[in-house]
Amino acid sequence: MIEGGMTNFLKTEYILKNTLDLLREAYKYEFCLVNMVEIEKRLEEKDLNLLSVLSDKEMEHFYSLKIKKNRIQWVSGRYAVKSALFKYKMSGSRLFDLTCIDILKGEDSAPYILQYPELCVSITHSFPYCIGIVSKNRIGVDIERVEEPEPSLIEYFYNKNEKEDLKCFEGVQFSQKTMTYWTRKEAASKVFKLGMKMDFKGLDTSKEKISFNNRSIRFKSAICQDFCVSIAFEDDMT
Q: Does the reported pTM lie above 0.85?
């Protein structure tokens, strides 16, 4: 049972990486997918190599986190973003010290790289996966496990076009489509750096390209085994 579950996780991880990699060149970003089970194990073993990528500011914040789940998610996010940044900035060029890089949270709660404010950063978690993305363009990513949604969630956050479209689906397909729309909403909120202040109901994610707040946004979504991942891009990317 455990072995089968682990095999399934590894297969999902492979599909997620492949999906994100296929979009990487077209939309000019770098990413890293982190398995939080491995991060948890390394933290329990007090793996100094894991913590060695954190800056002094980040280490200070890490030790201020008292809840284990928060520590795992926070370290996973920093590790993922720094790995993505390493690939984005270096590409065969000179090495640089990741401990001199600070991944901080702004007043809008969106993560940013102190030393590279011109870059856009997005982080998402859904156990056991964490994804970090770095791009020169506005971008947002969200991953969620596909589950049967609460009717109240649909009623409160989905607009009439999405609700009408969902009537065409049932069972697993209904859950997948519902989660596709939700991850798109979350990804878009990261593009606009609005978080839960986003007008989710005013955002029609039933189309792959939309106009919202005088900006053109394009979505790419994929079902990867039991998970749904969506990326939102500002459409004027070059």
A: yes
